[in-house]
Protein 1
Amino acid sequence: MNLKWCCFVPAIALLSGCGFFGNDRAPGDIPVTFTDLTRGEDCAYEVTVDKTSWKVNYLAFYLSNPEVKVEGRWIPLDFKVNDWQSKDVAFMHFQNACDDKQNRDHIMLDINEALLDRVTELRLTLGLDFGENHTAQADQVAPLDKPTMFQSVNIGHNFFRVELQNTREPSSIWSFLLASGGCNGSTPETTPSACAKPNRVTVTLPMAQNVSDLNLLAKLQQILFRVDLDKVAECNMAKAPDESCKKVMKNLTGRDWLKWDAPDKVYLKS
């Protein structure tokens, strides 16, 4: 993954292929699986970080601006509209270790197989466009109408949110909120005209052709690599973050936390 990070305006990378979704799945249906999450008590997910077990109280993020590269040109796409996606935004939520139907773990792109067969990359944004991000709560429509993913009109939404609870010390809770920072405006309910640190992450995965049964694999451990979860209780990137919080940002943009799984093909370009 070619990832860059500058002034908290990160970039990632995400997709492409040629007939790579197989015959058992609609074109543009991309499952996302966190491979390092295990089933804990009460159907909660758990993750091990630095030999310590943590319960995942919350794990969710927003994706926007899907684009595919065809013959060297980026073509914008829509998401398929459903309970957790508008044409512009997809909400991903990983909450139940027992019942996948309660999770929002598929990216659904509105694309036909003929176009997919010509794709060489796909690009998504972990974050929201400025206007959507700062919409008043009363005017928000699905999938932006999630109180757990909204801070204020001035700050906007959490683009990515995770909350962990130490399984041995339940009073020990750590959270990370990826949101825009340095937004001008005098009050929390003031709509800003600009944010000094948009804090959006862009993702791009180059692909070879003729790949089938493609899935995205994610690792929360890679996002938390060498992060001191005991240093501060909350990392809110809308505010002045601790250095340990900045490490999460570097991991989001510099580590292989999201990748393809195509067990029957060699699909990544060298």
Protein 2
Amino acid sequence: MVGVAHFIGGQVAGFFAPYSWAVQYSFASSFFWMVVIITLIGVIFSFTKIRRLDHVGASKIGTVFIFILIAAIGMQINLAGIVSQWRLLLIGLLWMSIHVVIIFAVARIIRAPFFFLAVGSNANTGGASSAPIVATAFHPSLAPVGVFLGILGYAVGTFGGYISTQLMRLVVG
């Protein structure tokens, strides 16, 4: 499906390429469209019988690819950039502080057990690869809840991240 999303993403990006406003909002980026399309395909497939592939090891293969992706990103990091871009580190700390305040406030308002606080927070920051591990620490039968919250975090994060990027672009001006 990634190959299909890659092909369709290239076609859609090509359609938007002549428009200057589309470049500003990433609509002319094939990578942007690939991520959006593969997220939508994943959510749609979760409502079909294809979701049963998880029982034959699809999530284990997916976890391997997530580790490969993280390693590939890590190989390109420039640690000296932390010193030169210290303001971005502060923004990240502020963002995580807001996350913690919201998670605790919502948990208190709805009187959620600590389990949902820990797994929900991890699903938002770590995703489907680590949320089931946190859920299993509470009870082995809760692993599917961790998977669900992690996948939901990916889907919401894809679109929420794009919206956040556009809001930051408005602030910068």
